[in-house]
Amino acid sequence: MSAVETEGVLTTEQIQRRVAELGEWFHNLNLGGVQTAPNHFLGDYPRVKWQNFSSAIPENLAGKSVLDIGCNAGFYSIEMKLRGADRVVGIDSDEKYLAQARFAAKVGNAEIEFRNLSVYRVADLREQFDLVLFMGVLYHLRHPLLALELLHEHVVADLLVTQSLLRGSQENMNVPADFPFWEEEIFNRDEFPRMYFVENRFANDPTNWWIPNRACFEAMLRSAGFEILDHPEDEVFICRRREVTGPLNYAKELKEITR
């Protein structure tokens, strides 16, 4: 976007002023030549991550609906709209980030609906989406498995693209379907699915609660009803929703918890 002063088009100076007014940005967006977080400690984030897995998502999303959970300033929502998605909804529980996202969409002339909504209340949307993005949210939740189950039950119609901070072993293992009560050795293996609980802070952030290793994240996704199709980036998984049947069908329990 060039800095021309025509009706409905913001000048570079107007964008710069509004970006500053909206506070500190976590997404570094290019808004008409203005970078929102040029000194981000992760670099040009989240574009540096997006470049590593963008090819795993369909280039043409025409006719598709997309839900971006924990949308922050709207980077992924805007990228989905650029790929032609008919309907894009971004939700976050932080009004500061939503204000940034609405402004970014306005500058980019992207028609996106942003709503203040917790991941635990996704049932309130009363809608399923062809593609659901769940990026950088899981480790900020006190109840991460419940969140995945709610996504499966209420909003994912087909594909889930999800990312989590991972720590510990990056190896995977074939965990037996069952093992005896007195088995101990398997739990001592670094690659056994495990979650690290952060009681106070991690990276000076009091909202970092649970950090899985890779095997744990994959196991949680499978347990919540998702088939892992691809692993295009160290922390990113592309999944397809499958029906959960048998003794582990949690749908009835979820209804009891969330009603």
Task: Describe it.
The chain is of the alpha/beta class and 259 residues long. It has a single domain (63-258), classed as Rossmann fold (3-Layer(aba) Sandwich), CATH 3.40.50. The protein has 7 helices and 11 strands. The protein has helices at residues 12-21, 47-53, 75-82, 95-107, 144-154, 214-223, 251-258, and strands at residues 30-31, 34-35, 65-69, 87-92, 113-116, 129-135, 156-163, 195-197, 210-212, 226-233, 236-241. The strands form 3 sheets. Strands 5-4-3-6-7-11-10 form a 7-stranded mixed beta sheet, with helices on both faces. Strand 1 (30-31) and strand 2 (34-35) form a beta hairpin. The longest helix has 13 residues, at 95-107. The chain is globular, with a radius of gyration of 20 Å. The N and C termini lie far apart (47 Å).
